[in-house]
Amino acid sequence: MRVDPGFAAGTPAAGSIAVAPVLARGLAGHRRYTYVAAAAPGELRQAARLFWEEPPPRLLERALAEALATRYAQVYATATPLPADRRVVATLIRFEEADAGAASRAVVAFDAVVTRGGRIERTGRWCATAPIADASGTTRARAFETALGAAVSAFVAERAKGC
């Protein structure tokens, strides 16, 4: 399934930021679709026939770079450590469907550390959910697109305020 959240264009401020390759915990890093059934809330399961076009950590990395480009003049998303004013290191915690069934929702959560000059400037966790209206792959992908966009937008909004 393909996910491509869009971000409203902003007026980039001077400065640069680098986005390191995103790490992932557990099944959040797998291309296979992950869900939690309401009947077994403590178990992560993987769908037999649903796969992401890109691994979820790559989706988050790309979303962070695209969203930060609305706020910074230069954004680097590469494993190569390029000189930048700030660096974002993120870990994807959740990228799963919760409560599979009638009240399904896409859940996206990540931790991030922002450094400046080798010192930690900000740490935090950002999370968002979006309802999944039906069982189609397209509907599920759009819900994850919405949740990913909301979580990343909240992160970028804090960056814009200097938090």
Automatic annotation (TrEMBL):
Residue ranges constituting the ABC-type transport auxiliary lipoprotein component domain according to the UniProt record: 14-151
InterPro entries to which the protein is assigned, alphabetical: ABC_trans_aux
Official protein name in the record: ABC-type transport auxiliary lipoprotein component domain-containing protein
